[in-house]
Amino acid sequence: MLAETGIPTKENLASIMPPDERLAQGPVAIAECFQNIPCDPCYHSCKQGAIQEFQDINDRPQIDFNKCNGCGSCMSRCPGLAIFVVDATYGDNEALVKIPYEFLPIPEVGEIVTAINRAGQPVADAKIIKVQNTKVQDRTAIIWLAVPKEYMMEVRHFKVKEVR
Q1: What is the pLDDT confidence band of residue 163, given thresholds at 50, 70 and 90?
Q2: Separation between Cα atoms, residue 162 and residue 164, nearest integer Å
Q3: Second label for 104, Cα 20 to 30 Å away, from 91, 138, 141, 164?
Q4: Which residue numbers delimit the 4Fe-4S ferredoxin-type domain (predicted)?
């Protein structure tokens, strides 16, 4: 149960996931924000108008998946690090998962890391494809991970394999 473990249930996840048809069209943001809290920076950062305007500051973000182009501008603005971008079209066997990251050291492109799920369990090896870490992102790097396609909806963080 989410309130006890911090891990969303299948029902929680089903309520926020884009349909398979949308996933097959390219990158799309997923807001794994499950609590009503006063927060709306994601709405203000979305230049596509994909994050619907909040009726109440305590509302949870609602994404219009048809308007979302997966740019990820909302990711670095989310103080809860709860928005991810998934691109199922990245490759035949791999998907791209963009993850907000606020730890040091920042991983390097080409590095192989251990992809972990929402419970902190390792699920697969992943490769760092790109690191976005610009001033406008306000110290929240966006790490692009190539993961086995079957884990694209599970991988939500990673662990570096060795300390540098």
Answers
A1: low
A2: 6
A3: 91
A4: 59-88
Displacement of CA 45 from its chain's centroid (Å): 15
DSSP labels, 57-124: TTSPP-B-TTT-----TTGGG-TT--EEEEETTS-SSEEEEEEEE--SSPP-TT-EEEEE-TTS-EEE
Tell the residue number behind the tokens 């949308």, with chain if given. 22
The residue type at 150: E
- Whose structure tokens read 């991983």? 107
Please indicate, yes or no, whether the overall pTM of this predicted structure exceeds 0.85.
yes
Q: Quick check: 41 pLDDT over 80?
A: yes
pLDDT of residue 90: 98
